[in-house]
Amino acid sequence: MNKIAVIYMGGTFGCVGSPLTPMSAPIFLEKLQHLYLSRMQQLDFFAAPTIKDSSELNARDWLELSFFIQTLSKQYQNFVLIHGTDTLHYAAAFLHHIFADTIHLIITGSQYPLFKQTGENLYSNSDAWDNLNFALNSISSLKAGVYLGFQHTLYHANSCYKVHTQELKAFTGLETTTYQSSHSLNALKHLETAHLELAQKLRILNYYLSPESAKNITFNLDALRQNPPNILILQTFGCGNLAYTTELKDVLNALIQSGCWIIISSQVLYGELSHQYAAGSWLADLDLVFDPHHSQADLYARAVILYLQHHQQQNWQKYWLI
């Protein structure tokens, strides 16, 4: 039976006290290991390089985690990652684009802590125990790849959304019972520790457009020209629609010329983007790209990982859907 590396990265799962705070990794892992002393599987427990509330995590943390998993993969092929739920789906998509099908990995977490506030006994109303055991029991039956496991359901890692702050069924996405092409960048071989600093400094602006005049939208975007983000995501309407004006087109072009990557996405969760409406077709004339629309977490991961590799190239757009 293949051994499993269980990696703890913080989050609600290992929180104690009031307000809830992640338990220190050595103490938590010792308690967790004690709970699994009688289990038939060989489980080895590790602390991730960064232990945080997941709302504090960013691309550098997940890239550093990827290098950590890469090192462990010399001895392990099966991984279960315990992660906070706030950004669990972002981590899942990020790791999907890093590893593709080179390892078996399930990322899980919980809506409620594993232990009571004192940290001494299991919290009986928690979903943590079930979620971790579900992941451990599922990992050996999956084909290689990265998955999100939660509330007795396995999802393709780059398809997920967090949909509830408190309910146990916190995530939705494309379940593994439905076939999905990988769509992974398989980027591990293109990244190195030198990219960590850039990942830390990377500035992303995700602009969720409101129904207002094109003049106001232009004004807001024009304010970015003095200090543009590295990546600007425009959450447009419908299948990628945004009211046209010459002024708006000029501002977008100016941002692109400054080196800002612009990505068109949609506020609608599902369905492909298209250029069938005049209200959106003009965007295709600009040197920007369109979200393949697997999920917002997938968009984030794809944008970040490609930027780390190709930020100095003027024709970066050609790599977008590779």
From TrEMBL:
Active site: 12 (o-isoaspartyl threonine intermediate)
Entry-linked SUPFAM superfamilies: Glutaminase/Asparaginase (SSF53774)
Annotated substrate binding sites: 54, 85-86
Pfam families hit by this protein: Asparaginase
Molecular function terms, GO-annotated: asparaginase activity
InterPro entries, alphabetized: Asp/glu_Ase-like_sf, Asparaginase/glutaminase-like, L-asparaginase_C, L-asparaginase_N, L-asparaginase_N_sf
Domain of life: Bacteria
Classification via PANTHER family: 60 KDA LYSOPHOSPHOLIPASE (PTHR11707:SF28), L-ASPARAGINASE (PTHR11707)
UniProt-recorded name of the protein: L-asparaginase
Organism expressing this protein natively: Acinetobacter puyangensis
